[in-house]
Amino acid sequence: MAQVHTNKSFKSLFSVTLMAAAIGLTACSTSTGSNPDVQARQDTMKNWGDAMGVMGDMAKAPDTFDADVFKEQAAFLAEDAAKPWSHFEDPEAVGNATEAVWSNADGFSAEAENFQKVTAELNAAAQNATSMDDVKPAFGQVGASCKSCHTDFRAKDE
Ligand code: HEC
Question: What's the 104 CA to ligand 1 centre distance in angstroms?
Answer without folding.
Answer: 17
